[in-house]
Amino acid sequence: MTRIVAGVAGGRRLEVPTAGTRPTSERVREALFSRLEHYGVVRGARVVDLCAGSGALGLEAASRGAAEVALVDSAKPAVAACQRNARSLGLAGVRVVKASASAYVEGAAGAPVDLVLIDPPYDADQESLAAMLEPLARAEDPWLVPGAVVVVERSTRSPEPPWPAGLRRFSHKRYGETAVWFAEPAAGDHAD
């Protein structure tokens, strides 16, 4: 069973697609969001959850006070689960987008975001991850506000994400078999 950890929807259950997803554990989400709240990038934030799966990461952000959350996934069962979860939780500012993560970030950014959560399948290769990260670092039509945080969740057996010029890793944490990488625009100032 997957649940929202904290915030206005804390304790509420989430539907998880029956195949093709690996939801972030509650323990990892709790630690991750504790850190993100310490950085001040959740409350009132504009958030993008790429490879959303059930939407657990983005919905956790919405429950904790994010103003706008886009749940992005290309798999039909994941999109349907995200839609049902968003509807059942009734959190304001949440929208579900059916698109591949790389195609979504290749498009126009619109208003820049404060937080990007990327939890690709553990077998995603470095090229696929690079296709998600590179557009986030572009200077024209920027995706990120100054001080934004980009989070990448991978298996501890996966290599470090291929950070493009314009994004700087500032922290890395391990939680059992899960590795979480934190990056920011190169001019950022977060401390480990």
Automatic annotation (TrEMBL):
<keyword id="KW-0489">Methyltransferase</keyword>
<dbReference type="InterPro" id="IPR002052">
    <property type="entry name" value="DNA_methylase_N6_adenine_CS"/>
</dbReference>
<dbReference type="GO" id="GO:0003676">
    <property type="term" value="F:nucleic acid binding"/>
</dbReference>
<dbReference type="InterPro" id="IPR004398">
    <property type="entry name" value="RNA_MeTrfase_RsmD"/>
</dbReference>
<dbReference type="Pfam" id="PF03602">
    <property type="entry name" value="Cons_hypoth95"/>
</dbReference>
<dbReference type="GO" id="GO:0052913">
    <property type="term" value="F:16S rRNA (guanine(966)-N(2))-methyltransferase activity"/>
</dbReference>
<protein>
    <submittedName>
        <fullName>Ribosomal RNA small subunit methyltransferase D</fullName>
        <ecNumber>2.1.1.171</ecNumber>
    </submittedName>
</protein>
<dbReference type="InterPro" id="IPR029063">
    <property type="entry name" value="SAM-dependent_MTases_sf"/>
</dbReference>
<keyword id="KW-0808">Transferase</keyword>
